[in-house]
Amino acid sequence: MPTVAVNGVDLYYRVDGDGPAVVFCHGRASTHLSWCHQVVALRDRYTCVTYDIRGFGRSTEEQHEPGFAAHSDDLEALLDHLGIDRAFVVGQSMGGFGALQFALRSPQRVLGLVLTSTPAGVNDDALMALVRAAQERAAGMPMTERVFRPQFIETQPVMLYIWRAQQDASTPYPRSFLDPLWYGGGPSAEAVQRLAVPTLILAAEYDNSVPVAAARRLQELLPGSRLQVAADCGHCIYWERPDFYNRALLDFFAEVGAMVGGPVTP
Predict the structure, then answer these.
(1) Residue 266 lies in a domain
(2) Which of 30, 176, 189, 253 could cysteine-pair with 26, CB 3.0–4.6 Å?
(3) Which CATH number goes with the domain that contains 46?
């Protein structure tokens, strides 16, 4: 079982494929397995790095968990361990918090940043107001309905079973664990506006946690970023609409590769 000791915990990780590196940071109700559609689609052209964030899946956790602040530290240590100098960084929901913080701290190591269904914890009043309103509207919803469209729940029982099994494999953190994500516990709007990394923002038409309006506000804060919206989809675009998601990644990676002159192919 490939693990690496970093910052007081053991991180479980996988490396699949060959080519420019892409590291995937999963969301709260997930593990590294949530990226199965992406790894299978990308591994012939990219080195896909997936891992369990501390306290999730097979990764361990300190007795006194230091919170989201450690996620970007762990990501940096994992890339150091693997000898990866630069990578595309993809973060979904909770994973977007550490992905953005890593890009802000070490922009020279990030070929391109993909933020999916996430406010990334950016401390901006307008962004947080939109996210808080969505959270209030979704309060009391069963978790499956907060995350997926009804059509997916009705027609994809196998994928839904796998998603639920991932939840059972992780530490049962209280809902307040996500407060830094939803309530601006991350970087300031001013810091984000200085980020000089190619960035793709992916949002879902029917996301009950991060509405499209919030994604648009995040796009306004990130200079030169672009936004794509997945129609007829809930919070987990990569899970509900993998073809759309994979195409968006491949096109973005290819465009960034053309800009930097690297061997990145669509």
Answers:
(1) no
(2) 30
(3) 3.40.50.1820
